[in-house]
Design a protein that fits this description.
Blueprint lengths: L9 H12 L5 H8 L3 H15 L11 H43 L1
Helix pairs in contact: 1-3
Length: 107
């Protein structure tokens, strides 16, 4: 029989990590009371420590500040891709205009 993988909200992960970092619970004690694995809780605690230190995580952020940073970085990436597409379209359309213009001049 396979064990179904549980998923936890970002808010739950943040609150769980805060128990260890801010409330003074030991990692095993918090994991037991929350009924989560120590490994998962250890990962959330480390991620919160990193985020508080200013590191933006590769996975979804726990803190609101880092979530906002991730949203803004995603928006920047999208805008840069759009700009590249528009540049290519401009080059293509200007090349076609030049071809038409040259054809008219030669005629």
């Amino acid at each position: 029989m396979t064990k179904q993988r549980r998923s936890f909200s970002q808010e739950f992960k943040l609150d769980s990590a805060k128990l260890v970092l801010d409330e003074g619970y030991s990692l095993p004690e918090a994991a037991r009371s929350l009924e989560v694995g120590e490994t998962a809780l250890r990962r959330w605690v480390k991620q919160l420590q990193d985020e508080r230190g200013g590191t933006t995580p590769n996975s979804k952020a726990l803190t609101p500040e880092q979530l906002k940073i991730q949203e803004l970085e995603a928006k920047i990436n999208r805008l840069e891709r759009e700009k590249t597409i528009l540049k290519k379209a401009t080059v293509i359309s200007s090349g076609q205009c030049n071809m038409v213009f040259n054809h008219i001049i030669r005629s």
